[in-house]
Structures are given as structure tokens and as C-alpha cells.
Design a protein that fits this description.
The structure holds two protein chains of two kinds.
Chain A lengths: L1 E2 L3 H13 L7 E2 L2 H11 L3 E5 L7 H10 L5 E6 L9 H4 L4 E4 L5 H9 L1
Parallel strand pairs in A: 1-2, 1-3, 3-4, 4-5
Helix pairs in contact in A: 2-3
Chain B lengths: L2 H24 L6 H25 L5 H14 L8 H10 L2 H12 L8 H23 L3 H4 L16 H32 L2 H31 L4 H40 L4 H9 L5 E6 L4 E4 L13 E7 L2 E8 L7 H37 L3 E5 L5 E4 L1 H7 L4 H4 L4 H5 L5 H11 L6 E8 L5 E12 L5 E10 L1 H23 L3 E6 L4 E4 L1 H7 L3 H4 L12 H12 L4 E9 L5 E12 L5 E10 L1 H53 L4 H29 L2 H6 L1 H11 L4 E4 L7 H22 L4 E8 L2 E8 L11 H12 L3 E5 L7 E7 L7
Parallel strand pairs in B: 15-16
Antiparallel strand pairs in B: 1-2, 1-4, 3-4, 5-6, 5-9, 7-8, 8-9, 10-11, 10-14, 12-13, 13-14, 16-17, 17-19, 18-19
The chains are: A alpha/beta, B alpha+beta.
Chain lengths: 113, 824
Amino acid sequence: MIADDHPSFRASARAILEADGFEVVGEAEDGAGAIAAARRHRPDVLLLDVQLPDIDGFAVCRELCSNGARPAVVLVSSRDACDYGALIEQSGARGFIPKAELSGEALSATLAE
Amino acid sequence: MRRRYLVAGGLLALLGAAGAFWLVAESEHTENKALIYSLAATASLSFVFTGLVALWRRPGNRTGVLLAATGYLWMLGALTTSNEPWVFTLGWLVNSAAFGAFGHLILAYPSGRLESRYHRVLVAVVWAVLLLPALALLLVGGTDEVCLDADCPQSTLTVWDSGGAARVVLAVSSLGAVVVIALVLAALVVRWRRASAPLRRALLPVFAASAVPLILLAIGVAIHELAGADPRPVEYMAIAALGGVPLAFLAGVLRTRLARAGVGDMLLELARGTPIRDAIAETLSDPTLEIAYWLPDEGRYVFADGKPVPEQDDSRHVSLVEHAGRPTAALLHDPLLADERELIDAVTAAAGLWLDNERLQAKLRAQVEFLETTVDTSPSLLCSLDREGRIANLNLASTRASGYDDQEEVRWQPFWNVFVSPEERDDSRRRWEEAAPIHGAASFEHTFVNRAGQELTIAWSTAPLYDEHGNVRNVICGGLDTTERRRQYRQLLASEERLRAAIEASPVAILEVGLDDCVAMWNPAAEEMFGWSAEEVLGGPVRHVPPERNAELHELFDRVRGGEIYTGIESTRLRKDGTVIDVEISAAPIHDAGGDVVGHLALFADITERKRHEEELRASRARIVEAGDAARRQLERNLHDGAQQRLVALSLSLRLAQSKIGSDPATAEAVLDSARGELAAALDELRELARGIHPAVLTDRGLPAALEALATRSPIPVKIETPDEALPPPVESTAYYVIAEALANVIKYAQASTVTVKVCRDGDCARVEVADDGVGGADPGAGTGLRGLADRVEVLAGALAVESPPGGGTRIRAEIPLKPGPEG
């Protein structure tokens, strides 16, 4: 599942990941939508943008982890991982991928860690 | 000695004379009874009475006693005429005693005391020579050898009747008599030679009178022993001569009385100018006389040359001169003069009068000299005017003030001709005439030009002097030259007036506080600044100090009273209306003439406005910083949300195209086509962002071109007016942002149909105006947009004004100085 407020990114990411064999079960354009969609679709993996219009990706991640529904959350951002530092680890996410480097391969590698 | 003793002594002498007369008359062995009695009685009575007179006149002098004793002993000689043998024997024994007393008398004259050991021995020898042979002759029954008369009674003391022994005794007795007479005469000669002039004068009659009978007696004894001649004629002559001796003593006594008359001559001499010592020495016939003067302050006597009088000097006798019970002087004179008490008393009394008179005259002279010196050295003017107002006398200060060189030129001129200006002389004279004849005390101050051309101001006081009839004799004028004092006073007044004017006109609040913490001065600026009038605060404690500033106030008081001057102390003060203002305080101590601090002046500048400006400046700077932060945040956001997202999508598209290019070229081409569109959009967004940061067209082509670009992008038509001449870059930049922000606001809120932008130079300022025809009602305080614009304009010391009546469009005006202000 992909949660990002930029439609162009969601389209590009869906095309890339489906080309690499992933199935995209749903999309969300803000934090609250991401939480609701995750509960509804129960995806295996949630590709979650850090900067969302309502609540940020870290808060969404914490909310999902504490609720017991446990998709593997992979944070994505157009910024570098070093811009966020320890926040990524504290959020309970499985990993972080810069948006420009997203591919099925990179996602598989992150999930395998 | 009391007079009745003297009278008794006289009566006793008369009684003795009567007894002697009876014995002589009854005597059976006496020849020439009448002659002997008359001689002896005359001589003895004259001794006794002279002695009594001397005792009466000089009770302390033993000369009188010796004189009287000589007389009484002489009378006892009459006992030898008695027919009774034992009386005769007693008479024989004491017959010669009178000569012993006589010798004692002349050796002790004039004091009555034997003054040397030799004289005392000599008197003892005389007594021995007189009494021992007489006793010896009586023991050997030799009275008949000397008793030339036929029937002398026998001595009742005869133990060995021997004519030979009697003759030996008589020979020894005669020799002794001659020897002692010679010794006494020699002693008299020695005394005479040693005596001072006044003593010789006293001794001369006595010694002369005494020497004659002594010589006659010696001659009588000598011719009897050597020639066997009858000594009686010579003895009768000696007795007759002895009778004259008391007269010489009497003459000595009378001499004092005569000398007292010399005191009158002494006063005449003194009046003629003879020095007092010489006059007294002449009167007392003592050329060695000295006068010592009494110094009342020191309580001692000194000589005229200032030397002290020696404490002990036996060679001098001191007689004190007193007047009116006060010691005046002392006469140091020959001790023998002490016996002439009356003369000394008369002389000292006269000298006392004279010296006191001299002392008073000297005192008077000294007082006159003191007054003259005082008057002439006085810095005050002193003039004595006669009844016509003429200057009878004046002192040096008056002469100087008159401008004349010579005091005599001023004398006898009318006062007003000298000390009054010509135009006021008539008034002055009229006042003088009106004041006559009483001329009561008066005071006046007068300014005139003196003869030397100096303008002087004199403060005069006058007082009348009266003659013995109570009429005004003179008027004394005392004057004080107040010219300099008046000049200084005027200067002082002027400088005080200048200071007062400066304080009154000062825009700075000035107040004076005394050591009692009370307000002594409160200027109009203080009234204006603090709201209390001078009447409300003067004399009371300061009222404009907030309670929390009291400790600080007293610390400042202590500093300034310690002599410190301080400036620029920032604090707060209360106004009467309760508001607090910020003030800057300066203060300086006020010293009196002695250098002691008597209070201080405090100056207050109201810095409330300055403080407000400072606060605004701080806030403005904070807002600029905040605006900068906000702009950067916005920029980051725009980059993130815009160009970056597009570039991320572009990257993913290229990756997708890459993976499809082999298997599905048509899809890859479609992806690449979409990617090109993304890239173009990203470039557009980046350009727009760059323009927002700083329009390149403004930097490259100037304000008019930048405004044209703004207008091109605006959806509302914009009319633009710009100056021909370029403005300084900071001003252009600020004007651009003001216009850009204003246009953005117009586009967002105003619903306007047209906008006018004007930029023009106006003197030293650039004027910027953006006016629209929209809805108006913009609130400059509401949003951050307009506030930020105002801050930008204020950085360049400019001002921003917004007019936006509801429904009347909005007009934003900015005025920006072309030269950087103090804060730029």
C-alpha cells in the first residue's frame, strides 16, 4: 500500500513496484487516510511518506504499530535519511528508502534486513 | 613714745635739778657753788630736755634716750657735793658715768645705735676707764687727793688708805682718760671721713660741739698731771662747752624741719623741667639717689632703664612713693636719710603727686597717639565737620577718597564740595542746614566722582559731638567705601539672574534638593515633566519618586552629597497623574563658600519616547529576523513540494522507462514523454522560486523593468509610473518588495479592477504608492504582510502609511529617504 500526498509519486511508485512484481492493494493521500486504509486493506507492506498534510509519517507509524495491525512500514521521503536521524528507528518502521531510489529491488532489500 | 612718759621724764629732771640744787647749797666742801650749779644744771637739763624732745620727735631713735641718760647721769654727779660720806662715795662712783653715756651718744649718733664692733668695744673701754679708776680710788681712800676742796668726806669704801696708791690710780686714770678721749676723737674723725654728704651735714654740728669739751677735758687732765696746774678752769670751760652739745643735737633735729621747706623748692624745680631724680637728689642732698618705678602689671619695681631693683642692698634704704594708696615708685637713698622721716615723707608725697601727674599725662599722650594712629590707619573714612559743614579734620582714608593729594587742600572745604557730585551739592547743603543745630545721627549712601575722576560710592554715618554746654561742636562723619562691594553685588546679581534665566528656560527639568531632602527649587520644565507645580513641591520632600526607587534615590543622594557628579543614570519617576516615565538623571553638588556641600542640583531628561523608539526598533528587528526565517521555511517547503517532487517523479519515470525500453518500447516512449513534461514543469517552478527570492530582472535591469514583469504576471491590469533616474539599490529593492507584496494583497483580497503603482523622487525621499479600486478595509495591524513591509521601510528610516476605508479602495504609501539614516 502506498501513502503519499503527491499523486505523481503514487502513480510512479505503483508503476515501478507493479513492474517489479509487487501488488499494490491501496493508496492513501494523508495520515488519517493511511491509517484507515491500512486497517481496511491489511497490506503486508506500507510505503509511507514522512511528510503528510495532516499528521506526519512517524505518528502514523507509531499509531499502526501500537494497534497490533502490523504491516511492515517502510518510510519514504524525498529527503535523506540523515535529515531525520533517530526518529526513523524510534518510529518502529522496518526501514527507510529515499524516493528517488525506490524500486522493487530496493524494497525487497529493505524488507530482508 | 607716749607723751606722758616724756612729761614724767621732764618732771623727773626738774626734780633732780631741785635735789642737786639742795645738795650743792648744803655742801660743806664745795667752792664756787653758784658757778658749778649753774653750769651743771644748765648742761644736764639741756641734755635731758633735748633728749625728751628727740624722743618725742623720733620715738624709734635711741639718740634721745642717750641724750636724756647723759643728762640724768650728770645730775647724779651732784651727789659728790653731799656731806653724807656714803652719798658722797656713791656720787664719786657715778660722777664720771655721764661721760660714758656721752661717749656712747656721740659714737652712736645719729641713729642711736653703735654700728660697728669697734665702736661697741670703744664704748666699753670708755665705761671701764671711767668706772674702774673711780672704784679703785675709793678703795684706797684717795678721794682727798682729787678733792681739792678742804673738807671732803671720806670714802666709805676705803679698805687701804694709801696716798701713794691713790696717786698711782690717779695717774693711770688720767692716762686712760686722755687715751680714750683720743680714741673717741679718732673714731669721730674716721666716721666723718667715711660719711656721705648728707651724713656729714648731720654729723658736723654734733661732732664739732662734742669735740670741743672732749679736747678741753683732755687738756685739763694733761696740765693737771704734767704741770700740776689747777684743772678746774679748763673743766668748767669743758662743762660749759658740753652744755652746748644738746643744742647741736637740737640743731640737727631742727634741720629736718628746715629741709621740709626745701620740698616746695623741689616742686618749683620740677615745674621748671628739672628731671625728678635730680630734683629729689638736690632736695635730699643725696647725689647717689635713684628712683625705681612700679610696674603694676608685673608687680615689681624697675629703674628708669628697665633694670630690676636688687633684692637685698644694705647700702641703700628704700622709701616707697605712693599716691592714692597705689605704689608709684621707690626712692633708693642713703640709709641715714631714713631718720629724716618727715623730709622723706614730704619728698615722697611730692614725688608721688608729680609722678602720678606724669603717669596720667603719659597715659593721655599714649591715648591720643593711639587714637591718632587708629584714625589714620583706619580703612574707614573719618571726617570732623564744624558747624558750617566744613571739614575741620580728616584721616588718610578720607584724603584718598577725596582724590586730593594733600590733606591740607581738603581742610576747611565744605563737605559737599569734596564728597558730593556738583549737581547734588545744593541739596546736600540744604539738608545740612535743615539738620542744624541738632545734627542728629544719620546714615546715607552716596555716589560721586572725586577730584581724581574716580566714581566712588560711600556709605556715610554721622554723629554729633557736643561741647560742655551741650551744643553741637562738631559732626563726625564715618564713611565706608562700598564701591567695590556694590560692583561685586551687581555682578553677583547679574550672574545669579543669568543662571536663573537658564534654569527657567531650560527644557531639562532641574530641581534643587537641600540636605534636609526638601525641594528648594523646581523649574518650569520640572512642572511640565512631572505635573506638580513649584508651589506644590517647594519646601517639601520629593514626590516624584516611585516607592520602589527609594533605596536607589538615597544611594544617589549619598553619592552627590559626597561630592560626586554623575550623569546618565537611567531610572523611572512618577508623574502627578500616576503614570511612570523613563528619565535620565544627572546631578551635581552645591558647595558653600567654605567648600561644604549644602545641597545638590538634579537634572531630568524624559527618555520615555526614546525608550519607546528603542523598544520598537528591537521589535522591528526581531520581526525582520522572524520574517527571514519564515521566508526560508516557505522556500524550503516550495522546493520540497514543487521542483523536488517533480524531480523524484522524473527519476522514477526514467527508471521505469529504462526497465521497459527493451521489452515494451511503446510504453517506455510514453513514460519518457511524460517525464519530459515533468522536467519542464520542474524548471518552471524553480524559475518562479528564484524570482521570489530576488527577481533577477530587478538586479539586471532595474526597478521599472522589474515592475513591468510583476505587471505582466498580474491577473489585474496594472498602471505603472516610475522615475527617470535610478534610485539607490536598497531603496529600489525595498520599493519593489512593497509593490510586490501590495500587488499580491490586491490580487488576493481587494477584488479590484485596476491597480496604480507610482514611484517618484521627492527631494531626499522616494515616494511609493500602490492604489486600487477594490473593497478596502485592510487592517495594517492584522496580518504580518503589512507589518513586515513597515519594518522593511523603517530599516531605511522610512515610513509606511495605509489608507483603506471600507469600500473606498486601498492606498499604500511609503516614504523612503534616499540617504541612509542613522539606523540604516
